[in-house]
Design a protein that fits this description.
Blueprint: H1 4-15, E1 24-29, H2 37-45, E2 50-55, E3 64-68, E4 71-75, E5 88-91, E6 96-97, H3 99-111, E7 120-123, E8 127-128, H4 133-146, H5 158-166, H6 181-203, H7 209-226, E9 230-232, H8 234-243, E10 247-251, H9 277-282, E11 289-297, E12 300-302, H10 315-324, E13 337-339, E14 341-342, H11 343-353, E15 357-361, E16 373-382, E17 385-386, E18 399-406, H12 423-435, E19 442-447, E20 455-457
Helix pairs in contact: 3-7, 4-5, 4-6
Residues 32-34, 61-63, 151-154, 156, 158-159, 253-254, 258, 267, 269-270, 303-304 line the site of inosinic acid.
Length: 460
């Protein structure tokens, strides 16, 4: 069942484009990732308003679980529109591409009945993740762990891949088609090997040569497959589609609070996750950007290192959120830390990203029954001092200021009609709306389960 009101809302906003040309809307996570963006993206794409969906940053560190028509797919690098047959899939120049992951996902999709090859376009300027990048990622984490500053990366080689690009020694995706690709790869391999040996000799990092050989073989096989795909000047293609009057959705990976510049450095990912990066990660001017959708959960989760001020202190309750919300990483399987909704961080993320429409996901997950109170974080403190601005480093935060509001237990699972929403969840949503009133955002829909149609419309 398609949801008519949401459809109209998206349609009306997608029409206001310049001179009949198409526009780009953006979806980003507003917390620390895992807000369930994949589901919202899949839903947005199902109304025939967009002709394509584009990844513009990050790599196979992302993990999107998409459920549609009884099928479940966990994607890391393929854009979330893969389960919809008419949507073009774009991987932009801002993405670091793990060839093995990409080919594996394409095979899995084929098994589900979706051959995405004819509608997948990859920028020749995207960056290649090499088979040694994940090992360098692990070596770096091993080294950091010794000095107790582990970031808790996804071990997908994201940091090293972006580092190589900034240091101007990396491989571009289009390089695979060049006659001297082997030579280019060999130069980088030598550099990586020296680097790995440094970790070994100076810091006792154990290099698993057998594993490296296995990865190497898989990587070269995947590169051969990659060569057969549509590698192109994606900026040109996207601009062409816009000129044809088509709309495109840009799909953020990770989230605003993990942005390399504005997140809690160094506990961040290695790319800019903010909507501002859509332009650079796809090669389009900012003038084509229209709606910015922000996604938050009704509570907060985080994986990896760094302070997490909103974390639920009661371990049993945190576990209850983890279990009820299946809060285990789609990429790494790690349990996610769970916290209360953090409105202080959310306001910061909205301001940074210019979001105008909000999805609140997982509102069905509430292990606190009606009549019992849950908390919402509304401010941070450094000892006795109330912080007026978002802190430079999150470890400055020693405690949080909270407000309490009644829980609703599991009474809203699968609700699709906003008239059927429990009184308590209704109060919670109105409370959030009041707290964000000055930011000019609309809570347009609220998620109540994993399926595409498990949501209800909220503000008009
Ligand atoms: P990296 O992106 O693998 O380098 O990891 C850096 C940080 O970002 C770590 O704290 C990861 O847990 C986090 N991270 C990266 N990708 C995701 C994601 O898709 N969801 C949630 N956290 C992520
Ligand atoms: Mg995820």
């Amino acid at each position: 069942m398609r949801n008519k009101i949401l459809k109209n809302k998206i349609a009306s906003s997608a029409i206001r484009r310049r001179g009949g040309k198409g526009s780009i809307d953006v979806v980003v996570g507003l917390q620390w990732g895992d807000e369930g963006k994949g589901k919202n993206i899949d839903e947005l794409l199902s109304h025939g308003i967009y002709s394509g969906v584009a990844r513009f940053q990050g790599g196979a560190n992302a993990g999107h679980t998409i459920k549609a028509n009884g099928k479940t797919f966990i994607g890391h690098i393929i854009p979330s529109g893969c389960l919809q047959k008419d949507i073009e899939l774009y991987i932009g120049n801002g993405v670091v591409v793990d060839a093995v992951s990409l080919i594996k996902e394409m095979r899995e999709l084929e098994d589900l009945g979706f051959d995405v090859t004819p509608r997948l376009y990859i920028s020749n300027r995207a960056k290649l993740v090499s088979y040694l990048h994940p090992f360098l990622d692990q070596a770096d984490e091993y080294y950091r762990n010794k000095s107790s500053h582990k970031i808790g990366t996804t071990s997908r080689g994201i940091g090293p891949a972006y580092s190589d690009i900034r240091a101007r020694r990396g491989l571009l995706l289009g390089d695979v088609l060049l006659p001297d690709f082997k030579e280019r790869e060999e130069n980088l391999r030598k550099f990586h090997h020296d680097f790995l040996n440094l970790y070994k000799e100076k810091h006792e990092f154990e290099i698993d040569e057998k594993k490296i050989e296995e990865s190497k073989a898989k990587w070269w096989a995947a590169v051969e497959e990659l060569k057969k795909l549509q590698i192109c000047d994606l900026s040109f293609l996207v601009q062409k589609r816009l000129a044809e009057g088509k709309n495109i959705l840009a799909e953020g990976a990770q989230a605003v609070m993990l942005d390399i510049d504005f997140g809690d450095y160094p506990n961040v990912t290695s790319s800019n996750t903010l909507p501002a990066n859509v332009c650079l990660g796809l090669g389009i001017p900012h003038t084509v950007l229209r709606d910015i959708y922000g996604v938050t959960k009704a509570y907060t989760t985080k994986v990896g290192g760094g302070n997490f001020p909103a974390r639920i202190k009661d371990q049993a309750l945190e576990k209850a959120f983890q279990d009820a919300g299946h809060e285990f990483g789609a990429t790494t399987g790690r349990p996610r830390m769970c916290g209360w909704l953090d409105l202080f961080a959310l306001r910061h993320a909205i301001a940074l990203s210019g979001v105008n429409k909000i999805f609140i996901n997982k509102a069905d997950i509430c292990p606190i029954n009606k009549g019992k109170n849950m908390k919402v974080v509304i401010g941070y403190k450094n000892n006795k001092k109330v912080l007026k601005e978002f802190p430079f480093y999150l470890n400055e935060v020693t405690s949080v200021i909270t407000e309490e509001i009644s829980g609703w237990g599991d009474s809203n699972h699968g609700v699709k009609n906003n008239k059927k929403v429990s009184k308590e969840l209704r109060s919670y949503l109105n409370y959030i709306k009041r707290k964000l009133a000055d930011l000019n955002v609309k809570i347009i829909a609220v998620g109540t389960g994993q399926d595409r149609d498990h949501f209800f419309n909220w503000e008009k």
